[in-house]
Amino acid sequence: MQLLASPPALAQSIKDELDAHAVPAPERIQVRARPIESFDLRDRAARRFGALQFRSGLVLTSSFRGFGGLSALRLDPKGERFTAISDRGTWFTGRIVHSGAEMTGLADVEAAPILGADGQPLTKRKWYDSESLAFDGGIAYVGYERINQIVKFDFGRDGVRARGQPIAVPPGLRKLPNNKGIEALVAVPKGLPLAGTLIAISERGLDADRNIIGFLIGGKTPGTFAIRRTEDFDVSDAVLLPPGDLLILERKFSWLAGVHIRIRRIPLASLMPGAVIDGRALFNADLGQEIDNMEGIDVHRDASGETVLTLVSDDNFSMLQRTLLLQFTLIED
Fold first, then answer.
1. For 121-147, what is each residue's pLDDT tens digit?
2. Number of helices (H) and strands (E), helices first, in the chain?
3. Torsion over CA of 71, 173, 221 and 218, rounded to 10 degrees?
4. How far, CA to CA in Å, does 84 sit from each of 70, 155, 236?
5. Other C-beta atoms lying within 10 Å of the C-beta of residue 204
6. What digits encode the pLDDT tens for the residues 190-233?
7. Pairing of strands 276-277, 223-227
8. How many CA atoms lie within 13 A of 147 on its CB side?
């Protein structure tokens, strides 16, 4: 009877144990970018669309098998470095390359699995549909739609190697419909109404009046609110403008009318527990323009002080769809 492992067996046992807990390294990938010269397919000279002016756009492709399905995007204050997530549980980081005001490509792109507390990809727990992303300083929050959960990461310290910890969420959030759960996350910074609050908005979790349910998590006034749902639009993302208003990116699809997207602007001060909020549309687009399943939006100010909106699409890993990166200037009339 062998009571103790031999040195070679012990060494292999230790190696297996270390491998089981090893953190997967980010993988450098190549992403090709084809420019979009005109946003409007019916009027290629048009540049103004509602309150937005088209700056530039890219069609992104990659031989990396996991590239695609981009469901949320966050940029650094200069609009250069980006962090994105796919709905298959992958981080993507890198840099947007510009020539003047126009985007020309992506550089230094890396992909890595989103990790759980045990250091293993959360997809191993069947936690898919990572649909929303927010940063509060160095802390990242990722919303998972089908399991109705929000996971917190110390991204500032560990980057894509950060290990996620689920946070406590309201009971109503856990009861959202399957595949219609949290689609947008916004962390409210200091100096604004609701500072310290994480705003979580469902895609199409509806209240008794058929309005879209949202949650105020943490902060001084946690609770539930609603966004008035009009024209059958669902929420796909949200972001705060520098002055503090909330921009909500919406989309709808039908086999007859195709894909439509819309951006609404809502005063942040109108958000409070029990409120039903609404706002005017800044922008509408359909398949007569260069859009797809637009799921992510972020905002930054460029070197000249202009407010720039960046949108990204989720191609659903389909050959019939595209990964688009679009930028517009917000025109304050």
1. 999 998 889 999 999 999 999 999 989
2. 3, 24
3. -60
4. 7, 12, 14
5. 18
6. 999 999 999 999 999 999 999 999 999 999 999 999 999 999 99
7. parallel
8. 17
pTM of the model: 0.91
Alpha-carbon gap, residue 194 to 186, rounded angstroms: 11
pLDDT tens sequence across 324-333: 999 999 998 7
Buried b / exposed e along 218-255 (16+ C-beta atoms within 10 A): beeeebebbbebeeebbbbbbbbbeeebbbbbbbbeee
Average pLDDT (107-111) is: 98
For residue 167, the one-letter residue type is I
Residues 6+ apart with CB under 8 A from 293: 251, 253, 259, 313, 314, 315, 316, 321
Tokens of 31: 């992403």
**In whole numbers, what is the pLDDT of the chain averaged over residues?**
92
- Inter-residue contact 251 to 293 (CB < 8 Å): yes
Tokens of 323: 């990964």
